[in-house]
Amino acid sequence: MLTMLGVVIGVGSVIAMIGIGAGTAQKSLENIEVMGTNMLTIMPNWRRGNVSLGAGDNPNLTEDDVAALKREVETIEFITGSVRSSASVKYGNRTTNTQVYGAEPQVALIRNATKMHQGTWYTAEDEAMANRKAVLGYTVYDELFQGENAIGATIRVKGRNYEVVGVVAYKGGSGFMNPDDQIYVPLKTAQTRLLGKTKYDMINLTAKSGLLFYTQAKVEEVLQRKQSNAMGESLFRIMNQGEWIEQIETQTRLLSFLLAGIASVSLLVGGIGIMNIMLVSVTERTREIGLRKAIGAKRTSVLAQFLLESIVMCLVGGVVGIILGSTGVVFVAQALKVPPIINTQAIVMAFGFSALVGLFFGLYPAMRASRLTPIEALRYE
Question: What are the extents of the domains in the chain?
Answer without folding.
Answer: 2-28+246-379, 82-207
